[in-house]
Amino acid sequence: MKINNVILRTVTKLAVFIILTLAVYLFFAGHNSPGGGFIAGLALSAAFVLLLLVTDIETIKKGIPLDFKKVAAFGAFLAVGTGFGAFVFDVPFLTQSFGNFVVPFFGEIELSTVTIFEAGVSFAVVGVVITIILSISEDV
Amino acid sequence: MNNIIVLPMALPIMLGIILIFLRPYIKTQRVLTVLGLLVTIGISIYMLQWIQTDGIIRLDFGGWEPPFGILFVADSFAVILVTAASIVTLICLIYAFSSIGEKIEYMYFYSFVNFLLAGVNGSFLTGDIFNLYVNFEIMLLASYVLIVLGGKRMQLRESLKYVVINIISSWFFLVAIAYLYAQLGTLNMAHISVLISESGQTPLLTVTSLVFLIVFALKSGLLLYFWLPGSYSAPPTAVAALFGGLLTKVGIYVMIRVFTLIFYHEPQITHTIIGILAGLTLIMGSIGAIAYKDIRQIVAYNVIIAVGFILVGLAVMTQEALEGAVYYLMHDMVAKSLLFLLAGTMITVTGEKRLDNMSGLIRNYPVFGWMFFIVMLSLAGVPPLSGFIGKVLVGQGAVEAGSYILLALGFISSIFVLYSLLRVFLNSFWGETIISFDDEVPMKKGWMVSFGLFTALMFTFGLGAEYFAPFVADAANTLLNPQIYIDAVLE
């Protein structure tokens, strides 16, 4: 079944970028206000799912040649790995630290170790969601 | 701050994740898993020694002080079980190496065994009741995968029941936590205990405790065991042995923890109900164990009898009875895993599932046959094997508390255990052999090594009971005096 839905395709080209931008915004907003790695990951995977709907699996696989199971595992690795940093710095497991840095052009920004953990969560969410969607679609 | 406490959970998780990347390299996966488990066992033994000198140790994640943050608390009871669980996993894996088959190994088998162990160890160590729920889920998710790996018709059928029953009980678990949180506003188990002893255990809290009781009864197979015989006989032998050794024990552990630390003010209600449930479990487990001719069913009903017996220890709640329960938990993890492995191997070598279709196995496999005999004696509680000391102590506690009915049921059930397994032994191992010496499937070395290790452990627990006594006494002492646990957490 091949549907050539022009409106959907055109809207998607724009919408995907808006969704991706929103995902990035949510990701960085999450530190002190609503947002964070989990919903950023969900928004990211929403963009992927939209792409999957309007094109087909083969095109997406060619465009993004990633094994999403590995992406999920990498995310979990990153998230758990930040915990192990505690052994290096001799602080309780999963302790976070942050600092303010002055970066040219952006000015003063706050960087924290939680962001690495959140990145891991995002990867894990994207990996799991896309794996689920792909394996369901392969079944049908 | 003692980061080491998190390792029995964090190490298997990390290892499980790394193994996902090493999917095609099965040999490497095996080596890494064994190394990881050896390190975990080493760490837990070290922690156990440390607790004896310095008392209970705890770790506040991220430096958030209790009662606000999540924490791990390592007391003797928890760490004894962490050690036993890690050892049992290691030995079951040695069996799995030569039995599970490359196809299943390739489907992330070792990753999920590691995740299962992480969930089990996390459940033992956590000091926060919501974190307990999360750890339960980690363990259950891994077990859903392990039960269905292989994809046989029976596995799919049984796993569906298993998943449904566990989702329902997890939902009840959440509801119970919500009730508790609504009344007390805290999730830290030590803090909950303090608040309850200040305000008194109101009827509403007692009802909440009964919801918890239903949850843990479903998870551990206390009376609500209808799902257990089916699901434990579906997966491959090594996985069934892991389940039989570990999963119900986590439910039992949590029940003991919750009803000694949190809801211990109204024992005439809660502990009486636990006693009644334990008695009924013993009766129905005993009937089940002798009712079936399918070896896997017989073995699964033996698990249920043990659940009833251990919880007799909780129901009477004396120092001796709790020591007995701890001893019996250790013993049962080892002995039940061995029993599952032996039963599974019998099915593998004969291709039959019913005991009256097998005969004369001991002529083909003498050592194997005698090991079955030893595990039977151990489960029946014959000295000097590991089951003896636990049974004696639970019995002593029941006498002190005057619970003669539970005492009688407990010891009569031992006779049923003996009878049910003796029936297997007489039918399947004695008599004319049905396997000609030319056709017999050779026992693989890995199988014999894992049986041998388990048997050695049973002798160690039995003969070395004196050596384990201080650890077990400390565990029971902490359970009986919740103030020790509370002081360690909230000071």
List keywords for this structure.
heterodimer, A: 140 residues, mainly alpha, 5 helices, 9% strand, B: 491 residues, 2 strands
Description:
The complex is a heterodimer of chains A (140) and B (491). In chain A, helix 1 (6-29) runs antiparallel to helix 2 (37-54), helix 2 (37-54) packs parallel to helix 5 and helix 4 (68-89) runs antiparallel to helix 5. The mean pLDDT of chain A is 86. Chain A is mostly helical and 140 residues long. Chain A contains five helices and two strands. In chain A, strands 1-2 form a two-stranded antiparallel sheet. Chain A has one domain (6-139). In chain A, 69% of the residues lie in helices and 9% in strands. The longest helix of chain A is centred in the C-terminal third of the chain and has 26 residues, at 114-139. Chain B is an all-alpha fold. Chain B has one domain. Chain B is built from 21 helices and two strands. In chain B, helix 3 (76-97) runs antiparallel to helix 19, helix 13 packs across helix 17 (387-401) and helix 17 packs antiparallel against helix 18 (404-429). Chain B is globular and about 70 Å long. The mean pLDDT of chain B is 92. The chains are: A mainly alpha (140), B mainly alpha (491).
Provide a quick synopsis of the model.
Chain A has 140 residues and is mainly α. Chain A is built from five helices and two strands; from the N terminus they run ααααββα. Chain A has one domain (6-139).
Write the layout of secondary structure elements.
The complex is a heterodimer of chains A (140) and B (491).
Chain A: H1 6-29, H2 37-54, H3 57-63, H4 68-89, E1 98-103, E2 107-112, H5 114-139
Antiparallel strand pairs in A: 1-2
Chain B: H1 7-21, H2 26-54, E1 57-60, E2 71-74, H3 76-97, H4 102-106, H5 109-125, H6 129-148, H7 153-184, H8 189-199, H9 203-220, H10 228-233, H11 237-261, H12 270-291, H13 295-316, H14 319-350, H15 361-364, H16 366-380, H17 387-401, H18 404-429, H19 445-463, H20 465-480, H21 482-490
Antiparallel strand pairs in B: 1-2
Helix pairs in contact in B: 1-2, 1-5, 2-3, 3-5, 3-11, 3-14, 3-19, 3-20, 5-6, 6-7, 6-11, 7-9, 8-21, 9-11, 11-13, 11-14, 12-13, 12-18, 13-14, 13-17, 13-18, 14-16, 14-17, 14-19, 14-20, 16-18, 16-19, 17-18
Organism (chain B): Oceanobacillus indicireducens
Subcellular location (chain B): Cell membrane; Membrane
Keywords (chain B): Antiport, Cell membrane, Membrane, Transmembrane, Transmembrane helix, Transport
